C-alpha cells in the first residue's frame, strides 16, 4: 500500500503509537469505553475494600472467637452484611466492565471494517488492479480484528492502575514496613511487563505481515485451483504456501517463547514474594507491630493483585498485535482516493460515442492505443474486430471509464455505460439477486431483461429465478453465466452497452438471437461488441477494425471485406479457427459415443 519511493521517516515511539491507536479506535465510542472503565474502577475500589473486610473479619470475628470463645451476634451480622455488600457492588462493577468493554470492541470493529470496505468502494478500478484480493480481504477482516484486540482487556487494565494506587496507599498507612515490602515489588513486575512488550513487538509485527501474505497467497491459489491442477503445479503451490506458513510459524513461536518466559517469571516472583511477606509479617505480629487481621489483609490483597498485574502484561502483549493490525488498516484508510477515470469522460449532446486522438499506454511500455479517432452514432451496433493485442478490450475499458486515457478525449451519452466481461462474475445468491444486485427492480423489468438475453433457461431451473447459482455460478455452464451477466446489464437500460466477447460461449444461433433481441428491444441503445465470430460480426451495423492500437478501417462488414486485405485475411483466419473448433468438438463427441457403446449403452441418432 505504501509508496516505496516515499522518503522514510523516523518511526514514532511505541507510546505515541499506542496513544494514536487508542485515540483512533475510540473516536466516536468514548462514552461506551468510559462506562466500561467506570465499572472497572468500581471493581478496583471494592477489591481494596475487600481486603479491609478481611481484616475486620479476622480481628473482630475469628481472633476473638479463638481468644475469648465468644463473638457478639450483631458484630457477625454487621461484618457479614459488609462482606455481602462489597461483593455485590464488586460483581456489578465486573458486569458493567465486561458488557460495555465487549460492546465497545464490537462497535469499534464494526466501524473499522465498514470504513475499510467503504474506502475500497471509493477507490477506482486502477487502484484495485494494483492490489491482491487476499490482501484486501485480510486488511478488512484479520487486520481490523487484530487492531481491536487490545480493547477487551483495556478497561480491566485501567482498573489495575486505580487498584495499585489505592492499595499502595492503604498498605503504607496500615503498616509502613509491610507496605514498603509489598509496594517495592510493583515496579519490578511492571518493569517485567515492559521488557516483555518490547521483546514481543517484533514477533507480532512479523506475524501479522506474514498472516496477510498467507491470506493473499491462499486466496490466489484457491481462486486459480483449476489452473494449478491442470498444469500440475500442486507441488509448487504447496512449497510456496509452506514457505510463507513457515515464516508465520517462526514469528508465532518466537512470540510464544517470549510469553512463556514472561509468564513463568510473573508466576514465580509473586509466589516468592508471598512467602517472604508471610515470614516478615509473622515477625511483625509476634513483635506486636501488626495484628493478625492486618497480615491477613496484606496477604489477601497482594494475592489478589497478582492476576491484575499479569493483565497489564496481557494488554502490553496485545498492544503490538493491535498496532500491527492498525498500521495495516491505516495504510488503506490513509491512502488518498485516486481520481475516478469515469469523471474524465465528456458528454456528447447527440448520444454518440466519440474518441478524439485517444492514446493509452502502460508504464514503460508502448502505446496500446495510438491515436484512436472514431464516432459511433447513437443506436448503432458496432463490432470491434482485431487480432490479439490490437487493443480491443482496452478500448472498451476506456469507454466504460474503468481506466483513463494517457491523452485524448472520450465522449459518451448521458446515462449508464455498462461493460459485460467475457468471464462473468456471479455471486453465491439466487439468479434474481445476480440480475438485480440488490436493487428494487420490478418483476416485469427483470423478466424482460432475461428474455432479451435469451436466458429463459432460468425459468426451467428447480426454483426458477429463486434458484441458488452457487459460488461464481459453479452450477451453470459458461454460456448460461454469460447470459445472466448480460441480463444484469440490460435490466439497468444503459445508454451504451459494451460487450467484451460476452457471447463467446454461446452457439451461433443463440448469439444471433441475443443480438437480434438487443436491436429489437433496445433500439436507442448503442452497442460496442468485441467479436471474433464471423457470423456475429456480419450482424453488426458497422465494424471498427483495429491494427496495433490504430483504427485501420471503420465501415460495413461487406465493404471492409472487399476493400481491406488485412481485414479479409483476419476474417478468413477466424473462419478457419471456428471450423477447426467445430471439427474438434465433433471428434470429442464421437469418442464419447464410442466409449458409451463400449460400455454397453445404446446410442440413438
Strand content: 5-15%
Number of strands: 10
CATH class wording of the largest domain: Mainly Alpha
Q: Between the first and last Cα atoms, what is the distance in angstroms?
A: 60 Å
The secondary-structure element order is HHHHHHHHHHHEEEEHEEHHHEHEHEEHH
CATH H-level superfamily title of the largest domain: ABC transporter type 1, transmembrane domain
Mean pLDDT: 79
The major pleated sheet works out as: 6 strands, mixed
Main sheet strand line-up: 6-7-8-4-9-10
- Figure out the total of helices: 19
Helix content: 55-70%
Poorly predicted runs are: 2-10, 588-605
What is the SS-derived class?
alpha/beta
Q: What is the CATH topology classification name of the largest domain?
A: ABC transporter transmembrane region fold
How would you sum up the global shape?
elongated
Q: What radius of gyration results from the CA coordinates? A: 36 Å
Whole-number total of structural domains: 2
CATH architecture of the largest domain: Up-down Bundle
Amino acid at each position: 500500500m505504501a509508496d516505496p519511493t516515499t522518503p522514510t521517516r523516523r518511526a514514532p515511539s511505541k507510546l505515541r503509537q499506542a496513544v494514536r491507536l487508542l485515540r483512533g479506535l475510540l473516536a466516536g465510542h468514548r462514552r461506551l469505553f468510559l462506562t466500561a472503565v467506570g465499572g472497572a474502577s468500581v471493581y478496583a475500589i471494592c477489591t481494596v475494600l475487600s481486603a479491609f473486610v478481611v481484616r475486620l473479619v479476622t480481628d473482630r470475628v475469628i481472633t476473638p472467637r479463638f481468644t475469648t470463645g465468644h463473638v457478639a451476634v450483631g458484630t457477625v451480622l454487621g461484618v457479614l452484611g459488609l462482606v455481602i455488600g462489597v461483593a455485590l457492588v464488586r460483581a456489578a462493577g465486573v458486569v458493567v466492565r465486561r458488557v460495555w468493554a465487549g460492546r465497545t470492541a464490537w462497535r469499534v470493529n464494526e466501524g473499522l471494517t465498514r470504513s475499510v470496505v467503504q474506502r475500497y468502494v471509493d477507490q477506482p478500478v486502477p487502484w484495485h488492479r494494483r492490489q491482491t484480493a487476499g490482501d484486501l480481504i485480510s486488511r478488512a477482516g484479520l487486520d481490523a480484528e487484530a487492531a481491536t484486540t487490545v480493547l477487551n482487556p483495556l478497561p480491566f487494565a485501567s482498573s489495575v492502575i486505580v487498584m495499585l494506587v489505592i492499595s499502595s496507599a492503604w498498605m503504607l498507612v496500615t503498616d509502613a514496613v509491610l507496605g514498603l515490602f509489598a509496594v517495592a515489588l510493583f515496579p519490578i513486575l511492571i518493569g517485567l511487563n515492559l521488557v516483555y512488550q518490547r521483546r514481543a513487538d517484533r514477533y507480532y509485527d512479523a506475524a501479522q505481515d506474514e498472516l496477510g501474505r498467507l491470506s493473499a497467497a491462499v486466496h490466489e491459489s484457491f481462486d486459480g485451483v483449476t489452473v494449478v491442477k491442470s498444469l500440475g503445479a500442486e507441488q509448487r503451490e504447496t512449497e510456496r504456501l509452506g514457505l510463507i506458513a513457515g515464516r508465520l510459524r517462526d514469528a508465532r513461536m518466537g512470540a510464544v517463547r517470549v510469553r512463556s518466559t514472561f509468564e513463568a517469571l510473573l508466576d514465580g516472583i509473586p509466589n516468592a514474594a508471598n512467602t517472604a511477606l508471610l515470614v516478615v509479617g509473622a515477625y511483625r505480629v509476634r513483635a506486636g507491630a501488626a495484628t493478625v487481621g492486618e497480615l491477613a489483609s496484606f496477604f489477601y490483597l497482594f494475592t489478589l493483585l497478582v492476576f491484575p498485574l499479569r493483565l497489564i502484561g496481557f494488554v502490553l502483549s496485545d498492544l503490538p498485535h493491535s498496532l500491527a493490525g492498525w498500521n495495516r488498516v491505516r495504510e488503506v484508510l490513509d491512502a488518498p482516493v485516486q481520481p475516478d477515470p469515469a469523471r474524465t469522460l465528456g458528454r456528447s449532446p447527440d448520444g454518440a460515442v466519440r474518441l478524439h486522438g485517444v492514446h493509452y499506454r502502460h508504464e514503460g511500455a508502448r502505446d496500446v492505443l495510438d491515436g484512436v479517432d472514431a464516432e459511433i452514432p447513437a443506436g448503432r451496433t458496432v463490432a470491434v474486430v482485431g487480432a490479439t493485442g490490437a487493443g480491443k478490450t482496452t478500448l472498451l475499458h476506456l469507454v466504460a471509464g474503468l481506466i483513463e486515457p494517457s491523452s485524448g478525449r472520450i465522449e459518451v451519452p448521458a446515462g449508464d455505460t455498462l461493460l459485460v466481461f467475457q468471464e462473468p462474475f456471479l455471486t453465491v445468491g439466487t439468479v434474481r439477486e445476480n440480475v438485480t444486485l440488490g436493487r428494487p427492480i420490478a418483476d416485469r423489468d427483470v423478466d424482460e431483461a432475461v428474455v432479451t438475453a435469451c436466458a429463459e433457461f432460468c425459468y426451467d431451473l428447480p426454483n426458477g429465478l429463486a434458484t441458488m447459482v452457487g459460488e461464481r455460478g459453479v452450477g451453470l455452464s459458461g454460456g448460461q453465466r454469460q447470459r445472466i451477466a448480460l441480463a444484469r446489464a440490460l435490466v439497468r437500460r444503459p445508454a451504451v452497452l459494451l460487450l467484451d466477447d460476452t457471447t463467446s460461449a454461446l452457439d451461433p444461433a443463440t448469439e444471433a438471437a441475443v443480438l437480434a433481441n438487443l436491436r429489437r428491444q433496445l433500439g436507442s441503445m448503442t452497442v460496442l461488441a468485441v467479436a471474433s465470430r464471423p457470423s456475429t460480426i456480419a450482424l453488426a451495423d458497422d465494424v471498427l477494425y483495429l491494427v496495433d492500437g490504430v483504427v485501420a478501417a471503420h465501415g460495413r462488414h461487406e465493404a471492409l471485406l472487399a476493400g481491406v486485405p488485412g481485414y479479409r485475411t483476419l476474417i478468413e483466419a477466424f473462419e478457419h479457427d471456428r471450423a477447426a473448433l467445430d471439427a474438434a468438438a465433433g471428434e470429442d463427441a464421437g469418442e464419447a459415443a464410442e466409449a458409451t457403446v463400449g460400455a454397453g449403452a445404446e446410442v440413438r441418432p
